[in-house]
Design brief:
Elements lengths: L6 H23 L31 E5 L5 E6 L6 E2 L2 E2 L6 E7 L5 E8 L5 E8 L2 E8 L5 E6 L6 E2 L5 E2 L8 E7 L5 E6 L5 E7 L5 E6 L5 E5 L1 H11 L1
Length: 235
């Protein structure tokens, strides 16, 4: 009959195992000396403030600037007019929200609510000379996400050699949308922003691939479920 272990012996064994496991875990996590030195800026970065300065700020506009004084972010109601390569232009519609700027002060995107009838929400990131990608939620309930091809950078003599903001050739090549009536679609377009291939769901609920010509007319489609349903009816 094996001898009974005393509680003290059992505690000592468990304690020793726990210490060994802890030592092993610490050793496994220990970084190789010098491995991260060139990457680390601080081992104790500031992640909080001791106290808030104010519980509430009520302002029309708040600018965040870099070490050179360049405005890199603006929170405003309304936001300022767009700046492209040092020149400020008229915005298509007034909007309020958050804008971000590059190191030269050009607008490169933002999240805004447009002050149009019914309001609209937009989240856009920009090329140097126009919209690159963006979400739009419109008053009629439609939702769109599009990806635009960047047009060639064009420097206009009339603007003193600055980048022109109007960008012919900036085609929308990919568009994902849910129409106001609920119809979903993914469009692939040509260099003139004309949809040429569409993935959608029909009113009957069938998945369909549509091929369109330059005039936007569907010239052919592949709808397997519809074909199967038609064959079933003919039997």
């Amino acid at each position: 009959m094996p001898a009974r272990s005393s509680p003290y012996m059992l505690f000592g064994l468990v304690g020793s195992c726990a210490l060994c496991a802890l030592a092993f875990a610490q050793d496994a996590k220990a970084p190789t000396p010098g491995k991260y030195d060139r990457l680390i800026l601080s081992r104790s970065p500031q992640i909080k403030v001791d106290k808030v300065d104010h519980d509430r700020l009520a302002v029309r506009r708040l600018d965040i600037v870099d070490e050179k004084g360049i405005i890199r972010m603006t929170l405003g109601a309304p936001v300022p007019e767009p700046i492209v390569d040092g020149i400020q232009y008229k915005r298509v519609f007034p909007a309020s929200g958050l804008l971000v700027f590059d190191k030269d002060g050009s607008e490169r995107g933002g999240y805004v609510v447009a002050d149009i009838e019914g309001s609209a929400v937009a989240n856009v990131q920009d090329h140097a000379n126009g919209d690159a990608i963006g979400w739009k939620i419109m008053p009629d309930g439609s939702v769109t996400f599009q990806i635009n091809e960047r047009a060639p950078i064009r420097r206009e003599p009339e603007l003193g050699g600055r980048i022109a903001p109007d960008n012919p050739g900036a085609a929308t090549r990919v568009k994902l949308s849910v129409a106001a009536n609920g119809t979903p679609s993914i469009d692939l377009a040509d260099k003139q922003s004309r949809p040429r291939l569409r993935l959608t769901v029909t009113e009957q609920g069938f998945g369909s691939i549509e091929f369109l010509n330059a005039d936007g007319k569907v010239v052919d489609s592949i709808t397997p479920e519809l074909v199967a349903a038609d064959k079933s009816k003919k039997r």
